[in-house]
Write a structure and sequence with these properties.
Distance between the termini: 48 Å
Shape: globular
Strand content: under 5%
Radius of gyration: 21 Å
Number of helices: 10
Length: 248
Amino acid sequence: MNISYWHFVLSLLLLAAPACGLWWLSRRLFRQTVVAMGQFVTVLVVLTCCYVYLFQWDSAWLNVVWIVLSGGVATLRYCRRRWLLVPVFVGMLVALFPVGLLTLLLAGPAGSVFEAWLFVPVMTLLQAECLFVSRRGLTSYVLNRREHGSLNEYLLGNGAKDVQALKPFIAAAVRRAYAPVLSQLLLVGVVFVPSLLLGLLIGGVEPVQAALFVLMLTMAGLCCSLLSLLASVFIYVKLKQDSTDFVK
């Protein structure tokens, strides 16, 4: 692609219609849209600057450090409750690197596992999936433990092991965390086409190879997010943050 600055400036005219419409219908919504677009552009500029240097240096260790740091920042931004931070972040890293590296070995060209053009986008996509599922699932787990703590005591009192007593709460957390993911998968091809597939096609990748790559990343995302959620729950339990320690 070769988008000139003049073409980009002309494309800003596309904002004229929604801007006028929002200004006429709701000034408040117009201001919120402007603020959201401003934040989006700011983050995009910062990320672009970072990616320019990451791709120029193309250092394996620097790419790994970037994924860890970006994961930490994303966790701080997305997980507002303090008791979520450590379990979600550590659980995400525990699941992300084994699954991500295996996916890169299977899907990428030989010797390109840690190259920035492949490593950074793939790991970032899996990281986002882990973060979304882990936060939603761990929150559900803690709420269920808080509301139905007597069930855990009942199961333990009847001879169940620790993992068996936690199984109903973990199952409920997995169902709640995976519901949006599965709903999105059911709509693929019916309502929308995956943006990753369209991006690969725009980049010139053959349709069959692009579809296989998207399918592999989808399977990796399901695996990675489930492992991340389970790791987050068990880390939370090991930190002895049961339902009585729930922080509002």
